[in-house]
Specification:
alpha/beta, FAD/NAD(P)-binding domain, 2 domains, 5-stranded parallel sheet, 8 helices, 26% strand
Amino acid sequence: MEQNRAHVVIAGGGVAALEALIALSELAPHRVRVTLVTPRREYVSRPQVIGESFSRGRRSHVALARITRDFGATHVTGSVVAVDPARRTARLASGEELPYDSLLIATGGRRVPAYEHAETIGDDTAAEALHGILADLEEGYLKRVAFVVPPQVAWTLPAYELALLVAHDAWSMCIDDAQFSLVTPEDRPLALFGPHAGAAVAGLLAGRGIAFVGGVRAEVARGTIRLHPGGRQLDAERVFALPDVQGDAPAGLPADGTGFLPTDVHGHVVGVAGVFAAGDATSFPAKHGGIAAQQAEAAAQSIAAAHGCAIEPEPFRPLLRGRLLTGGADLFLERDIAGGGGDAGGAMRQAWWPADKVSAPRLAPYVFALENANPQLATS
């Protein structure tokens, strides 16, 4: 019966929140009831924004009312701003309090511009700026473009993707006098994926005439980039930079100095009974939907086990997966960074299905099936 099931509150409306919601509906349908709390009205696949700007794919838009209905959950419009672990209540911005038996924080992080004099990659304003960049290159108004990774950013793939797509389209328009640079703290391209993937990406950069400027910290000013250490200066008329991600933990929960929640391998927020976290809200450095989905699965299994399901929760074992749009054949990158894999990893033509930007084993097939059955249903 409904009143006998444990109440699980999930705060968030992105990959981590929805992957966990679907997992709980399948792992513990008779043990828990789920309430999804988020100010959003729809799920939007944010990693596809760059490809969409170049007419290479599009973002998925799925109404959260449809998702919660399909998986037997309740959708509450609001934001969790504070948690009282002793009373097991979550307070919303409206002042309403929601009691919970287990709480999952999957609210993501706040993306803020890293530099004043740069367009922020993934931002709507940057997407608008991309529409005019090729025209400026073709007409000769623009000669030097740089793509910058801030020092504290671990998930660097979108900077490479944007650089490759811009350079590919410039090449296809016979623009051969533009200068492109990719500036990053990494010693080699996409270092997080290991040397084999790095070599493949280095070849792509060289083939598109993109200068790799690695092992540096960038200081962006208007028209120039100062590189540290050394103080060398790089001219750039237009700069696109990845955003910083800042934590936004609800009051009442422990957070590190940047606002992220510390978790163990099963998704428990350290030192707080009954509270879990997954995705960009956690202190795990790589902020990406595929990692968020893996963390959500670990947390969902732990929650299901805590409420009587006969399962042995699997720990979070980070497996990096990234689909790199190149303008030609996409590269699917994969590397096990949980330990024991050495430098294994590399680039391949397809490594998972559906071949989405985010490898989310439960959410991605659901969205794929929904949109392919009837695209109009996804938004209703």
